[in-house]
Amino acid sequence: MPTPAKLVPTAVSALRVSRHPIPAHARIPNTSIQNKPVLIYHGAFPAGDATTASGIEAHLSAVGVVAPQWCYTMYSTTHFHSTTHEVLCISRGRARLCLGGEDNPGRVEPVVGRGDVLVLPAGVGHRLLEDMGGFEMVGSYPVGCSWDMCYGKEGEEGKVQGIKDIPWFSADPIYGEKGPAMDL
């Protein structure tokens, strides 16, 4: 059996990155606590046979900043994590997401597809709005971190306050020392 092709990300110099500060809304803190925007790396992994869940997992493991923990779609209920930042690498399909909460006038609703990467700071509400065909992501978190589930409900205030103490990435999760997450 042939060895699968190694996944090589798009050169940083050619990468298009969207930065989205999203204001707090209701009980969802979004980017307000750490003042780090949501980052979307458009086409971070080029379309091709190596852009698969296993290829992405191998790349993330080799960089060593985040550990891949699951491969799935995104929940259709708005949720956020209060214990860690999250990196979502699209391994298949396309989808329209909601970042920031459905009723938030400052929300962002990007369409993402295979090869895109989202860097979600802790506290950013996110959910799937529309699966546009076989949508799947590799979910990963900084090495040694565990994720939780919060929904912007009463009683989560203590968890939200802890977000301010979460350290940012030690290096860019896709590119290592010199990547967009380090330019914040």
Q: Show unreliable segments.
A: none
Strand content: 25-35%
Provide the domain count: 1
Q: What would you call the shape?
A: globular
Gap between N and C termini, in Å?
Answer: 43 Å
Examine the coordinates and then state which fold CATH places here, giving the name of the CATH topology.
Jelly Rolls
Helix fraction?
under 10%
Question: What keyword list fits this structure?
Answer:
single chain; 184 residues; mainly beta; Jelly Rolls; six-stranded antiparallel β-sheet; three-stranded antiparallel β-sheet; 2 helices; 9% helix; RmlC-like_jellyroll; UCP019307_cupin; RmlC_Cupin_sf
Task: Give me the secondary-structure topology.
Elements: E1 16-20, E2 38-42, H1 53-63, E3 66-72, E4 86-92, E5 94-99, E6 111-113, E7 117-120, E8 126-131, E9 136-142, H2 157-162
Antiparallel strand pairs: 1-2, 2-7, 3-9, 4-7, 4-9, 5-6, 5-8
Characterization of this structure:
The chain is mostly beta strands. It has a single domain (12-164), classed as Jelly Rolls (Sandwich), CATH 2.60.120. It has helices at 53-63, 157-162; strands at residues 16-20, 38-42, 66-72, 86-92, 94-99, 111-113, 117-120, 126-131, 136-142. Strands 1-2-7-4-9-3 form a six-stranded antiparallel β-sheet, with helices on one face. Strands 6-5-8 form a three-stranded antiparallel β-sheet, with no helix packed on it. The radius of gyration is 16 Å and the shape is globular. The termini are far apart.
Overview in brief:
The protein is mainly β. The protein has helices at residues 53-63, 157-162, and strands at 16-20, 38-42, 66-72, 86-92, 94-99, 111-113, 117-120, 126-131, 136-142. The protein has one domain (12-164): Jelly Rolls, CATH 2.60.120.
